[in-house]
Every structure is written in C-alpha cells, then in structure tokens.
Amino acid sequence: MPLVIGICFIIQLPHTNFLISFLDVGQGDAIFIRTPDDYTILIDGGPGPMILDEIAKVMPIYTRTIDILTLTHPHADHVNGLVEIVKRYNVKRILLVGTPSQNEFYQEWLKVADMNNIEMIFASNGTDFRVGSEVFLDILWPIGNKAGVAYENLNNASLAMRVIWSDGENNVKFLLTGDAEIDEESEILNGNSTIKADVLKAGHHGSRTASSEDFLEKSDPRIVVIQSGEANSFGHPHQETLKNFLARNIQVRRNDLEGRIDFIFSRYQPPTF
Ligand SMILES: [Zn+2]
Predict the structure, then answer these.
(1) Using only C-alpha atoms, what is the Rg of the chain?
(2) Which pTM does this prediction carry?
(3) How does pLDDT run across 29-45, given as a tens digit for each residue?
(4) Which of 77, 147, 171, 205 has its CA 20 to 30 A from that of 48?
C-alpha cells in the first residue's frame, strides 16, 4: 500500500467541475488541471513563453497559485516554459524526478525555485497524492526515488502518473507519461502497476519509439491525446503510431490540428467524451 500525501490546506470555494487541459504550446507538453475544489496542477511548460498565454486562458482569474508544478523530465520542450511560471506564479510545491541535466533553463528553474523557497518533492511510485477531495495522482514512474540518478536518454526518465478524478460514483483516469519510450513503458509494466486509463497522452509526442503494443493493450484507452506542434521537424506523430491507435479504435485528439484540448467533467454526472 503506497504512502498517500493529502494536499488539502485551505478552504476553497467548490465549483464542482474537474478540468484537464492539454495546452497548445507548439512542439512540447503542457497540461493544466483544476480540481473541483479549485486546486491547480501544471504538468510541464512547453518550450517557451507560449505557456503564459495558454495558462491565462484556463486559470481562474482570481488566483495566481499553482498548488503542484510537475516536471516530467528536463528536456527543453517540457521545462523551458516553466522558468517564467516559477517567476510569475505562486508555486506551492514542485514534483519532479530530480534527474541531472545541464540544460540552462532547467538550471535556472531550479535556482528560482530555491530562491522562492518552493518545496521540492522527489517523486516515487511509493508515494501518491490526494489533491483536494476528488483528485488522486497515482505515481507510476520513477519506481523508487531516482533523484540524482543520471540517464543517457532523459525521455526514459519521465515522471509518469495516472490522474484520477472520482466523485464517489463516477471516475475518469488519465495516463500521462511525458516522453517515456518503450524502455520506460516496459519498466512500468514490469512494476505491476495498474495502468488502465480512459485517456492516454501519447508518450513522446506520438513518436514510434513510444506507445508500444503491450502498453496500449494494458492501458486500453478510449482516447489518445497527442501533444505535438503544427508542422514540427520531428515528424510527430509518426504514421505507424497513428495506425496502431486506429487499429484499436482509439479516438485520436491532436494539439497540432485542434489547438488546446479540454476535458471537463461534472460532479455526479457520468463522464461523456
Ligand atoms: Zn518532449
């Protein structure tokens, strides 16, 4: 039974909706979550200042607080936009793997976080988080604390989690794996965690190096969201990966085609997609 840390410290006004937004930050990842009791979570910040405009569209106007800021891994297309976030927002705590990297934006981000005395939590699958009364972060990777451990391929050191919203009657599960490629997916599968999800954010922007058959089989999503930039130079998402999704009748949603993608669920109403 993993340790569960409850994050529930001030009374907030309930507005009853659970929102998860896959922000349009070009070629990169950024996911914003607002719980029904108004806690805010940001997972990655994309490659630059586009995050500032995007987050302003989904943040409640009366708050500048981010309760949990998560970095999956310190590649430019995930961390660079977060430098301005820690400078401009009241970030309560940061959840990260703690992988070393010389990326200067990552270094600056860590420096600003330290100057602002932001609490740093090194993720581990042994510690999950309850955020408010209806949202649960089920950490899948790292398996054990990996802070300070160097990785040749940083993609395979991506913080992976399921974000689960439940009002007691209905629930929705989102599986978010950063840029995890097949090696990390195998590690997660071998770790015997439950990965069943309604919505999967395709690993590594829809690359063929992620979303393995085994991982799709076990997670069995109805919808896949691909965070890739319009006309990106990496060829993401790859055609083979798209074909694999379609062969399983998984609905594909893409930031490069649709812009920002929002999912909103209401308390005591069965989820509709
Ligand atoms: Zn990436």
Answers:
(1) 17
(2) 0.93
(3) 999 999 999 999 999 99
(4) 147
Span from the CA of 220 to the centroid of ligand 1 (angstroms): 23
What's the gap in Å between 228 CA and the centre of ligand 1? 9
Read off the DSSP letter of residue 206.
G
Interval 135-183: pLDDT, tens: 999 999 999 999 999 999 999 999 999 999 999 989 999 999 999 999 9
For the chain, list the domains and their CATH numbers. 16-266 (3.60.15.10)
Contacts with 151 (C-beta within 8 Å, 6 or more apart), sequence order: 99, 157
Burial of 53 (0-12, 13-18, 19+ CB in 10 A): exposed
Query: CA-CA distances (angstroms) from residue 139 to 19, 99, 127, 136, 168?
Result: 19, 16, 7, 9, 21
Q: How far is the CA of 27 from the centre of ligand 1 (A)?
A: 8
- DSSP E strands, the chain: 3-7, 17-22, 31-34, 40-43, 65-66, 68-70, 90-91, 93-96, 119-122, 127-131, 135-141, 160-166, 171-176, 199-201, 223-226, 251-254, 261-266
Distance 46 CA to ligand 1 centre (A): 8
Distance from Cα 269 to the centre of ligand 1, integer Å: 34
Quote the CA–CA distance of 209 and 207 in Å, as a whole number: 5
- The amino acid at residue 85 is I
